[in-house]
Design brief:
- Helix 1 packs across helix 2 (31-53), helix 1 runs parallel beside helix 4 (66-79) and helix 1 packs across helix 6.
- This protein has one domain.
- It has ten helices and no strands.
- By secondary structure, it is mostly helical.
């Protein structure tokens, strides 16, 4: 059974919760609001994944370290808000790294339950981006998923494709597939933010074809 080490999972939860807590503090949330948004960001994607898989209680409720870690991070954000605000730029890089980590965790969880490759891609994407969507909804903002911006969900989706392709079709060793996926997802997200790469917009193909036919050659 594929299994990401617990230390890595808890580390990803802590960084995700820290990102959510800073997001909440920046919007003047109180203690309960900060904890709620930190919790949603840190474990929301994993909870969505586990609910979709349907194998008992989500890991966030079964692993005893998850909730205390989120509580400690939330408290730190409330007590050291000004200091943590200075590391926001570093969190951008860490958030990009988390896309790769969470994608791997979601896809591996799918394979651990003998789900097909398509389900692994879907669950990898949901795990990587679900927390951010929940954070935005709780903050009263339009989720990143529905806003035009640098590649985010697309980065997770393509990273999940890379992981599944390496593991199932190339038959690469598990550590190689994990590292390649994390590196690819992180790099794609950072490059998208650096060069403002966005997903394609809807395109009116019939309209384009009609205009093309009317244009004199």
């Amino acid at each position: 059974m594929l299994k990401v080490p617990t230390a890595i999972e808890v580390g990803a939860v802590i960084i995700g919760a820290l990102s959510g807590a800073i997001h909440a503090v920046g919007r003047k949330a109180d203690a309960i609001g900060t904890f709620t948004i930190a919790l949603a960001t840190g474990v929301g994607g994993g909870i969505l994944r586990d609910v979709l898989i349907g194998d008992g209680a989500p890991l966030a409720l079964r692993v005893p370290l998850y909730l205390p870690a989120v509580a400690i991070v939330s408290l730190a954000a409330l007590l050291f808000a000004n200091g943590l605000a200075r590391v926001t730029r570093a969190l951008v890089v860490i958030d990009a790294l988390l896309i790769g980590f969470w994608t791997v965790m979601g896809a591996e969880r799918a394979f651990a339950h003998a789900l097909p490759a398509t389900a692994a891609v879907f669950l990898g994407t949901v795990t990587a981006t679900g927390g951010g969507v929940l954070r935005d909804l709780l903050s009263g903002e339009t989720p990143t998923l529905f806003r035009k911006g640098e590649l985010y969900v697309t980065a997770a989706f393509l990273a999940a494709l890379v992981y599944v392709a390496l593991l199932r079709f190339v038959r690469a060793p598990l550590p190689i597939a994990e590292l390649a996926t994390i590196g690819f997802g992180t790099s794609l997200r950072l490059l998208a933010m650096r060069w403002h790469l966005t997903a394609p917009e809807p395109f009116d193909l019939p309209g384009w074809w009609r205009r093309r036919r009317r244009t004199p050659q």
